[in-house]
C-alpha cells in the first residue's frame, strides 16, 4: 500500500514556519523475531508546533512506532530524529524536552496522587527540587486532580489514573508531547478537558503527537494527521488536505434524471449512477456551483442538490479497510 504524503503546508494552527520538523523518521522499520514486520519503512514528518493525530487500526504498528520514537523499542532499520537531534544518540539531551504518556505509566497504589508525582519528579535529575511542589500543584490543577491530590492511587478511577499520567508529562515544560490514547477511560467531560489541554499546549508552542481511535476528537484538535495500516504510513499531511484527498460526492434529485446524468457526464464527473430520485456522481475537480448552473440550464428540474464531503472517518475506512472503533 503506497503512502499519500500531502506535505507539511501551513494548517489551522500555523505550525512554526522556518523550523525543522519536531519528529522525522526515514525508512523506520521494526521486524520482530520470526520475521513479522510491525512497521515497514515509514517516513513520519511532524512539523514543529503541529498537533499531529496518529491513527491506525489494531495491529497497524502505531504504538510500536511511538515506542521507537521514544527509545523504548529499538528499530531494526531506518532513523529517528526528535527536535532536530538523532535518536538514540542524543537521547540524554533530547528526552528531558519530551513528555510522553504511553500505555499508562506505573504508579505506586498505596501512595497518593501527589506523592506519586513527587517520586516521578525526584527521579528526574534535570529538574530543580526547590520548585517541585509548585510544579506538582500546577500539573495536578491542569489535569483537574487538585481535589484528589491526597487520595491514594488505588482509589483512583481509570480516568483519574489517565489524568495522573498526563500530569507526570506536565511536571516541566516540554517542547514535544507524545500521547498514546490520552482519552482512554475518560468520560465525555474528561475527553473535552484533554482536548482543551492539547490545544493549550499547542498554543504555548508545544508540538503534540496524539494517537487516538476517537476520530471526531482528532478532527477537532489536530492540525495534521498520519494514518497507519498494516505497518505502513498510508496518508500524512495537514488535516484538511488529507481529508480532501477523498472524493466529494454530489447527489442530485431531479425531475429528469436522464438529463441530469448527461449533464454530469458531459462535465467530466465520474461514477455517475442513478438513484430512486435522480443521480449521484463523484465531483472530482468540477466546481459545484458550475455543475448546479449547468443542470438548471439544461432543464433537469433540480429539486435538491447535496454535496457529501468526506469525513476523516470516511478516509480512515477507505485507507485501512477497517472501522474506527479500535483502541490501537
What do these coordinates show?
- The protein has two domains: 242 residues, 3-Layer(aba) Sandwich (Rossmann fold); 60 residues, no CATH class.
- The N terminus and C terminus are likely disordered.
- The protein is of the alpha/beta class and 328 residues long.
- The radius of gyration is 24 Å and the shape is elongated.
- The chain is built from eleven helices and 16 strands.
- It has a seven-stranded mixed sheet with strand order 1-12-11-5-10-9-8, with helices on both faces. Strands 2, 3, 4, 6 and 7 form a five-stranded antiparallel sheet that branches. A four-stranded antiparallel sheet has the order 14-15-13-16, with helices on one face.
- It starts with a strand and ends in an 8-residue tail after the last helix.
How would you summarize what this structure contains?
With 328 residues, the protein is α/β, with parallel strands linked by helices. It has helices spanning 62-69, 91-94, 113-122, 132-142, 158-169, 188-203, 215-221, 239-244, 257-266, 288-297, 312-320; strands at residues 4-5, 23-31, 37-42, 45-46, 51-55, 77-82, 85-87, 98-101, 176-180, 207-211, 224-229, 232-238, 249-254, 270-275, 278-282, 302-308.
